[in-house]
Amino acid sequence: MVPPRKNRPAQVRIDRISPEGDTDASRPALYIDRDGTKEPLQAGSVVDRADFALVRWDAGDNNGGQFSFTALDGDGVPIVDASRQPVSQTVTVHESPEGPVYDNDTPLLVAHDQTLPIDASVLAGSDAARKPAFVQIVAIDPANPDQSTRPLGLVSAASPGRRTRAGPGQTISADDFANLRWDSAHNERRHLPLHPAGRRQQPIVGFGEQTVTVRESPLPPV
Predict the structure, then answer these.
(1) Which residue has the higher pLDDT, 76 or 143?
(2) How would you class 76 by CB atoms within 10 Å of its CB: exposed for 0-12, middle for 13-18, buried for 19 or more?
(3) How confident is the model over 86-103, as pLDDT tens digits?
(4) Helix (H, G, I), strand (E, B) or coil at 72
């Protein structure tokens, strides 16, 4: 609701507020936060430019939603575009899901020069209700790597023998959590940082990186 400073309207008028899955109509989804005091907004409310940064959306009793507003000049008259239509904007709010429960930081151990199937629970967490819809690979930086290979791969559920490379920036869906493989044949160990993400593939708000540590076992004695 805040365009470049020179183009900011003097006011905006709230036209519509539409929470999704609202369970408490008495609790305002959209409000102005005045030093901790909530000033509810509703259709028809006018917000001055000085208060733009104080507008908040409360997802405590809804799953996000939308609100729309019209830009006004200093006299409260709608600002129009080149076609003389009022300048309006709709904002969509997506509620971020709860973060997964990662309570096992024990390194994964892979046999020397072997491929390790990464257990799906490493990425899903221990609470099935809070399993992320996706994880995004932040980086792959194996120790002492062979640059011609990539240690992390994704096997096809339909064709288990087929393996494709997985790399930084790639997003892995929950359906493929059990299909990730770490190949230690050309590296020794590494920390694999991941970002859990919601169903829109956006990082879960307030949840940091999850680091998976893979260690290669040395050759057994003869």
Answers:
(1) 76
(2) exposed
(3) 999 999 999 999 999 998
(4) strand
The predicted structure's pLDDT at residue 220: 76
192 pLDDT tier (thresholds 50, 70, 90): confident
**Residue 90 and residue 73 in contact, taking contact as beta carbons nearer than 8 Å:** no
Residue for token digits 């799906």?
Answer: 120
Angle at 221 between CA 215 and CA 222, to 5 degrees: 145
| Measured distance CA(50)–CA(57) in Å, rounded | 18
Q: What is the dihedral of CA 8, 10, 13, 18, to 10 degrees?
A: 30
Strand partners, 105: none
Instruction: Let me know: does 166 contact 156? Beta carbons within 8 Å.
Output: no
CB atoms inside a 10 Å sphere around CB 169: 8
Half-sphere exposure of 185 (CA within 13 A, CB side): 9
DSSP H or E segment with residue 65? strand 64-72
Cα 185 → chain centroid: 33
Q: Which two tokens stand for residue 147?
A: 């640059």
**Which residue type, as a one-letter code, is found at position 162?**
R
Closest listed residue to residue 21, CA positions, set 56, 58, 65, 57: 65
Indicate yes or no: pTM above 0.85: no
